[in-house]
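re: that chain from earlier
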Amino acid sequence: MIQPRKHLLGLEGMQAQEIYQILDTSRSFHEILERQVKKVPTLRGRSMINAFFEPSTRTRVSFELAQKRLSADTINITTSGSSMSKGETLRDMVANLEAMRVDMIVIRHGTSGVPHMLAEHTRASVVNAGDGTHEHPTQGLLDLYTMRERLGDLAGRRVTILGDIAHSRVARSNIWGLRALGARVTVCGPRTMMPKRVEDLGVHVEYDLRRAVRDADVINVLRIQLERQGTNTFPGVREYARMFGITNEVLNTTKPECFVMHPGPMNRGVEISPEVADGPRAVILQQVTNGVAVRMAVCYLLIGAAGEEETRTVHELPRAVPAATA
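^ sequence. v structure.
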């Protein structure tokens, strides 16, 4: 039996069985998204706050859509639209939100560890939608879901994560999740974009692009995190594209079944060429679709399934998803 979690703060330390529970539940919600009526009453009467203190389109809209598909009441706040612009502290803001009896707070913040701090000071469930350079767990989960739908069992599969590893929270969530499921992870990028002691994460490190992708089943291309880099970490975008950009020429050196992922937003012509991004071996838009299903599953498991009298096993959870209503 899997005990329900109260928060989703990261994938580090999460066991394979917990990840499979989320992925299996996501598949059930994905089926709902394919119906003509895409809404279920699962979280009717529950209230959720999406607090985004960094720019976001995909993640914020994906969470909001997932919550509305579950019939939850959703409110979005940003730094400019909150009392924090008047000097209120984050902790005071959360205390006021909790006084309104919200059930879940989804937060994105530029400082690593903020979701963990909030989880210690609120009775609401907290979901980390990206904190600094630490983690982005729902992006990691939707990436795992996309890989699993294409490849089946991920144990022994080779995944190459390419790009700005040092500043990427997506990279860390992917690494923790992939390792928990038994995948073999290679990271590749400029030496100036590698974190210190990166090998301690349990990954293989490559600095030559073609060696890094030669045997890969999946290439997950990361965006260059210019807004998080204190100084320039490479000579220029042309140099980066020449050395580490994924092009059709590079893909021709990989296995025919190897496919390309990207968490977005993309810098076309820099880390990925337009031909690859729009080509048949890219699953980037599938990731976006899968993100809604995964976030529906996360919300359900944290405040829907957790409130039920009986904790279900991984195999029972998909059957517990309510049918759509007109």
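Strands lie at 47-52, 73-78, 104-109, 125-131, 158-162, 184-188, 204-206, 218-221, 259-261.
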